[in-house]
Amino acid sequence: MSASVFPRHISGEVDAALGGARVILIHGARQTGKTTLARHVCDRLGGTFATLDDPALLTAARSDPVGFVEQPRPLVVDEIQRAGDPLVVAIKMAVDRDPSPARFVITGSTNFLTVPTVSESLAGRLAIIDLWPFSAGELARGPAENFVTAAFDDPEALRAGPRGTLSRGQYLEMVCAGGYPAAVSLTPAQRRRWYRDYVRTVVERDIVELADIRRVDAVVPVLATVAALTGQELNVARLARGTGIDFRTAENYLAWLRTVFLVHRVPMWSRNLSTKAAKSAKLYLADTGLASHLANKDPTALARPTDTSVGGLVETFVAGEVAKQLTWNDTGAQLCHFRDHRGPEVDLILEAPDGRVVAIEAKAAVSPGTDSAKWLAWLRDRLDRLGGDFVHGYVLHAGPNRVSLGDRLTLLPLEALWHPAHTRHAP
Question: Does residue 121 belong to any structural domain of this protein?
Answer without folding.
Answer: yes
